[in-house]
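Quick one, tokens below. Sequence please?
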């Protein structure tokens, strides 16, 4: 809509699109009408290919606007994301940054369950945030 490709009557045009944000989660690929595909499913496309497609379509720099996963898979997930970004960049895709989302663990969107998916754990007091040490190690090793 911003680039004017969909609903041009609302005033979008290519000059308004300066960067493309791509969200990538373990369950955000699916075949129309079917359930989400796991990121390691044979029909799931690798992130670098999705980024290359977005760049081919919009011709603008890209950033990973949101990515993350719950639980102990966080460090491995972020390492995989960073590898995929590096592959995309080696293919000429201008990936300008990665946003780990969320930074803080939080209650679920659809319910109040605890979602351990941030760099920092929630606590009852705002002043007491507990870092997820393995995820922090990945970030220290290669800044986003």
């Amino acid at each position: 809509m911003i680039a004017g490709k969909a609903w041009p009557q609302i005033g979008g045009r290519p000059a308004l699109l300066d960067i493309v944000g791509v969200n990538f989660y373990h369950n955000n690929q699916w075949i129309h009408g079917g359930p989400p595909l796991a990121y390691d499913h044979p029909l799931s496309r690798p992130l670098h290919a999705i980024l290359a497609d977005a760049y081919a379509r919009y011709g603008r720099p890209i950033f990973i606007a949101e990515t993350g996963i719950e639980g102990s898979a966080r460090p491995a997930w972020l390492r995989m994301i960073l590898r995929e970004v590096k592959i995309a960049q080696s293919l000429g895709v201008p990936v300008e940054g990665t946003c780990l989302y969320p930074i803080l663990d939080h209650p679920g969107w659809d319910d109040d369950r605890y979602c351990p998916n941030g760099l920092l754990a929630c606590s009852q007091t705002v002043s007491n945030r507990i870092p997820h040490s393995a995820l922090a190690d990945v970030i220290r090793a290669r800044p986003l």
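Residues 17-141 form a domain with the TIM Barrel fold (CATH 3.20.20.80). The mean pLDDT is 90.
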